[in-house]
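ESCALATION

Customer reports they have been waiting on this structure for their group meeting. Please prioritize. Original submission:
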Amino acid sequence: MYKIYKSRAGNSYIYDNVTNNIYSVDKNDIESLPEMGETALLEKIDSKFYKSIYSDDIDFSILRCRPKVEYSTDMPEVLVIELTQQCNFRCEYCVYSGHYFYERKHNSKDMSDVLIGQIVQKFFKSKDYPKNVSFYGGEPLLKFDVIEKFVHSIENLGLDVDFFITTNGALLTDKSILDFIVSHRFHINISFDGLNNDLYRKRLDGGISSIMIESVIKELLENNPKYVNERVKLSVTLTPPYRLYDNAKYFERHSIYSKLNMLVNTVNIEDNDFIYNFDMKEENKRMREDYLKLADYFIDTEEKDLSYFLKALFLRPLLRIEERKMGIPSEMNRVGCCIPGKQRLYINTEGDYYMCERVGNYSKLGSVKEGISMPCVIAVQNEIDNLIWEKCSTCYLSRICNFCFSVFREGNVLTSKERVNRICNRQKEWFDFLFYVFLSKKELEDK
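Update from on-call: job pushed to the front of the queue and completed.
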């Protein structure tokens, strides 16, 4: 499949998913072509152009074949450990807030010391071990004593492991906790949502979260600026009412937050009543307008002059296009972002395995006690393929799409074809926008 794109300057390009490449073409040569279609139609442009790319015996059916099932082991790249389901915040848009139809709510469940010990024994007593450990909650720092013991256990084994934590930051005001996190060089994602932060991010103790976060970041910058630059990020969730353009300016001009790397995500709009308070058609329209406005600035600005917010907003997603693997494949790779249990393995407070922290209780893969279940790993892949592969196999984005398994579930089961269509249409709209930005910026950089 191919699709025709235009840059901001009006130049024409063809993205072809058989080669996963982008070709500059004269707009007059493609007048007779539909905007997207089968790759074989490209021969109409110029037979020399076509034959320079494809041999006579090219098998276009490769991209229609279901991908092979991939296997996993008990040694993922990232081990995610749910230490607790407690939290000292009550953020209204949180997936565990009670607003989401299929998700658990905050509760008092903690991972036991016995289970923590079993995880150390199972995953870190051999030459092959996870090189990255991420602590998850709830608020994981509520179990700081467990984190401390776990880290010391790994260090006593002489292993080189990177530790990650996403936190609301409240307990980083405790100097002993902050000093431990910094001295053990944790990668920290601190949740802070810019202009909407205090609207939704509510502390149980009644304090104002933005004041607390600013004081923590200020102390980190004053005492450990190099560490902050290398290992600390703000995790920004965009929530309605969307204020994307205003947030971009806020983070760019802020005396403290402008110095921090960022991750920028948008709140999940599926399966919750949180969004019932908003006219989402109007909110999405405003979001698109702001994205286009910021895209113009991003295209015209050198990378060194971009704010961290804009880098997170554009550079990170554009990597999917920038770093795509080009060439005609010998077989079709799995569409999406991960192989269950391979890149990430999530262990909940009960010791059960899931593919990541975003899938709730959909498709258990095993447990600490029993190990990973290969039949379950295979079943998940087959179930997903049965749902989406017919659609993916005829989509021009089949080699570049990065959908997440989590978006196709409703609770513990997979979703309907209708929802798949809705999600796929959003993905196409998003990637069409990214191609526009990518091509427009590339043109300026290549001048």
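Sent to customer with the following note: Residues 417-445 form the longest helix (29 residues).
Escalation resolved.
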